[in-house]
C-alpha cells in the first residue's frame, strides 16, 4: 500500500457508506449506532496509487479516556498517513477527543529541532515553557531510537 487513510468519526455519520462507495468493500450499514465494531479495510486505486482506507468503529465522548473501545480506535488512528474526519453538525466533540490524545487536526507539526552529535550527551533548549512534554519523556524516546548524544531545541510546546 502506498498510503493509509483512517476514517474517524462518531457513530452513524456515514463512515461505512463512504468506504463502500469508494472501494469494492461492502461495509455493513444500519439505522442504529455501533454497526461497525471492528476495523473494516478497503483499497482505493487512484492514479496508480493504492490507498488503504480503514473504516474505524465510531468514537464516543470520553474515547480519549478509554470509553467505548476509544483507546483501541485512537491507537489505530495514530498509525494513519491521513485521517479523514467524518462530521455531523451536532456532534462537535470529535476534534476534542482526538486532540486530547495528541492527534492535531489542521495544525502544523510542532517546531522541534534535533541534531545528533558524537559526544556530549543530550542538551535541551526551549524557547517557551513546555506544559505537556517533559525532558524525561523525551530522553526515553531518544533512548528507544538509540540516540544518546544530541541537541534538542523546542520552539513550540508539544505532546
TrEMBL record:
GO function terms (MF aspect): GTP binding; GTPase activity
Entry-linked PROSITE patterns: G_OBG (PS51710), GTP1_OBG (PS00905)
Pfam families to which the protein is assigned, alphabetical: MMR_HSR1 (PF01926), MMR_HSR1_Xtn (PF16897)
Keyword terms: GTP-binding, Nucleotide-binding
Gene3D superfamilies: 6.10.140.1070, P-loop containing nucleotide triphosphate hydrolases
InterPro entries in the cross-refs: DRG (IPR045001), G_OBG (IPR031167), GTP-bd (IPR006073), GTP-binding_2 (IPR031662), GTP1-OBG_CS (IPR006074), P-loop_NTPase (IPR027417), Small_GTP-bd (IPR005225)
CDD domains (UniProt xref): DRG
Superkingdom per UniProt: Eukaryota
Residue stretches making up the OBG-type G domain: 3-159
Protein name, per record: Uncharacterized GTP-binding protein (inferred by orthology to a C. elegans protein)
Amino acid at each position: 500500500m502506498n498510503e493509509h487513510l483512517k476514517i474517524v468519526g462518531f457513530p452513524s455519520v456515514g463512515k461505512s457508506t463512504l468506504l463502500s462507495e469508494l472501494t469494492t468493500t461492502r461495509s455493513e450499514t444500519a439505522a442504529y449506532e455501533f454497526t461497525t465494531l471492528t476495523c473494516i479495510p478497503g483499497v482505493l486505486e487512484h492514479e496508480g496509487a493504492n490507498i488503504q482506507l480503514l473504516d474505524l468503529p465510531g468514537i464516543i465522548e470520553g474515547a480519549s479516556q478509554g470509553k467505548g473501545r476509544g483507546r483501541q480506535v485512537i491507537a489505530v488512528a495514530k498509525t494513519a498517513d491521513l485521517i479523514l474526519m467524518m462530521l455531523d453538525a451536532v456532534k462537535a466533540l470529535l476534534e476534542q477527543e482526538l486532540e486530547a490524545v495528541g492527534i492535531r487536526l489542521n495544525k502544523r507539526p510542532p517546531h522541534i529541532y534535533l541534531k545528533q552529535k558524537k559526544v556530549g550527551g543530550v542538551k535541551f533548549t526551549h524557547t517557551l515553557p513546555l506544559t505537556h512534554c517533559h525532558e524525561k519523556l523525551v530522553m526515553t524516546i531518544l533512548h528507544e531510537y538509540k540516540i544518546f548524544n544530541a541537541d534538542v531545541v523546542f520552539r513550540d510546546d508539544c505532546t
